[in-house]
């Protein structure tokens, strides 16, 4: 009999219960006991749901208060010294929160840990901080407590933990300057692996049958030293005496498949959605006695699975391997919404094409039952419904748009080139008249409860169009007057009318659909509701021009037009899977090109096209990079190259590594790029310095993901550090990211200091 299991489940709750509980605790309106109660309720609910779907094992340890990597870092006791963690006491929950966001209800605020993207997803993890000779110990018991919690409820628990090599790979430290592949990090295994073994021994003592150890770095380009390290590590872990399922996902193993040959683990999970052609390579190196877990249900997108195709892929193995064949989603379901049944207003035809986390587990159960000698009538009916839904999507007339197809065919003739930067920057400076170290923000200002109520009432029909426009104009004027008062140089309109930087545009473009409760965790309590791109993209009317033009009419200072770039809209949506992603991206680029041209015609002299997901879209294997970068850069330039040379184009990127793609970033040819650097202490600027990046750059000096207000001297010091790396005349002063999630009091205090820092720099 084929075994079914799951690699992980969304932790936020279908109505974002975890988000609400966290923010209430951080604000002081709920107690730690209240928060813990919410966590228990969510875990119990999600285990029950997964068990009811027929899973043989439910994952435990996939729940996290902020991030699963951070949870594991604190279990290992790898707490940076600035958080004053005792070597003899358990790591408190508030210490975890201070590591994540710089502040918690108790404890002294400190600089938060660096945050970056989890492989090529829009999920952010907290980067482990590594130091030479680092020691480890079991410093939190959350995993063991949750195992006992699940067992007490009657579930077969399969603990899920980050693998030791993946955890080290993700970590950073000043003593390890050569990036993730730095072989010096492997020396930390001497202290790290024994603690892993202790964890496994304690898990075994609880009566657990299997433990899942995630090693997704096996989908990356690993050096020989890193590949060789797997054997020694898992030789040691084998002595814990508990069966290990080694889980890989997101990419083909390629040259790392040899790592599995003779590796002392009892099972291996591979992702057959991203890389179906790796199956034979893996079968060639694992034994018949080892469990083979196949990820055949897409854990990263929302389309229904072609179960007939999946069955054809696995049925021969099911006969041969029996209960040594496991079936699962391709990766953790963390990356998709919880339950399609919460969508009672979604278009009925489109709804029939979709599958969220709960439904994916149903698909898994149907697939497993279809492999049996006598599939149930319910399974046969479900498979037929699946076939009809897939056929309906394929035949639907709403997917293709003839106007879009014609524009796409003609797009090759559109010029992607602007005049040289040295020429156009002089024209821009003549027009804008900016001082040295010009100041700006990234775009959004705090989304107050009043703004959200106005938007909610307008969408429900309780507020008229004219009343809503009046309310938003009032907010825009407030933001403009505030920026004038504190002395910012290039202003923004604040984006009060926008619910989300991607969803807002999707609502105004053809080819998109939206959910009510399709929330996905981005980091901590930050959740997003990705749009669904189901068809060709069209721009029926201007999307931002009226708001930007109104803001510009209120001031003599330049106001940036604010757009989300084509790559980011693509990456932060659930994208159609019936055509190449680059074709969808070019459709987006054409729509944005029209918007950019209309903004310029409306008198907007500075236009920002944000691309925070540019690096996120980078394939995990270097051999695939050039093809992606070619079309991603082309789409950005297609969006921006239709304006005059005196119109200044900005872009923004955050929480990404740039050193290995700096040439592509330069090829985008934005006049100004703003980046996150405050958490990483200007570390990212090394890439721009080494490359001699030719255009203007704004290294962020205010970490907006922390409630802490930075000191003015801290910001000055960061910019002085930047000025030693880059030409001062090329530098801007700005926050790391948009201010949407911050409150007004901290925003005002921080920006006043930021402007003060810029003024001090001008006179030193």
From TrEMBL:
Chain positions recorded as L-homocysteine binding sites: 442-444, 495, 610
One Pfam family of this chain: Meth_synt_2
Obligatory cofactor(s): Zn(2+)
Matching InterPro entries: Cbl-indep_Met_Synth_N, Cobalamin-indep_Met_synthase, Met_Synth_C/arc, UROD/MetE-like_sf
Cofactor note text: Binds 1 zinc ion per subunit. Binds 2 Zn(2+) ions per subunit.
Binding residue positions for Zn(2+) 1: 652, 654, 676, 737
Record: residues binding 5-methyltetrahydropteroyltri-L-glutamate: 16-19, 117, 122, 526-527, 572, 616
Catalytic activity: 5-methyltetrahydropteroyltri-L-glutamate + L-homocysteine = tetrahydropteroyltri-L-glutamate + L-methionine
Alphabetical keyword list: Amino-acid biosynthesis, Metal-binding, Methionine biosynthesis, Methyltransferase, Repeat, Transferase, Zinc
A GO BP annotation: L-methionine biosynthetic process
Pathway in which the depicted protein is active: Amino-acid biosynthesis; L-methionine biosynthesis via de novo pathway; L-methionine from L-homocysteine (MetE route): step 1/1
Active site: 705
Every Cobalamin-independent methionine synthase MetE C-terminal/archaeal domain range: 438-759
GO molecular function: 5-methyltetrahydropteroyltriglutamate-homocysteine S-methyltransferase activity; zinc ion binding
Keyword Metal-binding: yes
Binding site for L-methionine: 442-444, 495, 610
Residues making up the signal peptide according to the UniProt record: none
EC number(s) on file: 2.1.1.14
Domain Cobalamin-independent methionine synthase MetE N-terminal, chain residue ranges per copy: 4-318
Family named by the database record: Belongs to the vitamin-B12 independent methionine synthase family.
Family matches, as HAMAP family: Meth_synth
Role this protein plays: Catalyzes the transfer of a methyl group from 5-methyltetrahydrofolate to homocysteine resulting in methionine formation.
Alphabetical list of NCBIfam families matching this protein: met_syn_B12ind (TIGR01371), PRK05222.1 (NF003556)
Name the record gives this protein: 5-methyltetrahydropteroyltriglutamate--homocysteine methyltransferase
Organism: Pollutimonas nitritireducens
